[in-house]
Fold:
Amino acid sequence: MCTVQFRTCDAVLFDLDGVLVDSNPVYERHWHVWAKQHGVSFDHIAAVHHGRPARQTIRLVAPHLDAELEACLYNDRVAADNDVKGVGAYEGVPELLRALHSQYWAIVTSAQRELALRFLQRLDLPAPSVLVTSDDVVNGKPSPDPYLKAASGLGRDPRRCVVIEDAPAGIAAAKAAGAFVVAIPATNPPDMLHEADALVSCIANLSIIQTEAGLTVSWAS
Structure:
């Protein structure tokens, strides 16, 4: 039997890739190329890259390389790639975002700003008033800095925010910021998301209702 759970909050902070947008085809295409060039196991990359800036992924999988340089080269190649074949918004996302007032939500992503905005534009999704990308923080996920910056940009206490995430690094960042975390197993299996406060099978099963007192986020478990 399904049980409906809910959480009241002042704002919802969404990850982008793996939560709102299925962009895995683009990133994995370029990680495959990078892995082959540097003799690194793609499986190792696939296990850690979700939710992390490229420089942090490279530090984990190839500590002998110059992570800053390699990340710049990787990001430049991704940014120059106009092939968004296979990229799409998850079911229910357009309706969910368009129903929310701009003061109640933000996007926090490890993608570069240019790429994040391109995905939103190509998929006809609304761009939030607060968009925190890898270009906006020194320390990306799993550091709490991206989520702290987003909450601050909305004028909200991060402890009164709900974060929607799909990756362990993002969950760690949100928890460190003090937020309540709902995880979606889009890019990682449920057992890797156990640090989240709640798990929902897909974002289409998430409901967000605006009231005068703020937001109520509900899901079935």
Notes: The first helix runs from residue 24 to 38.
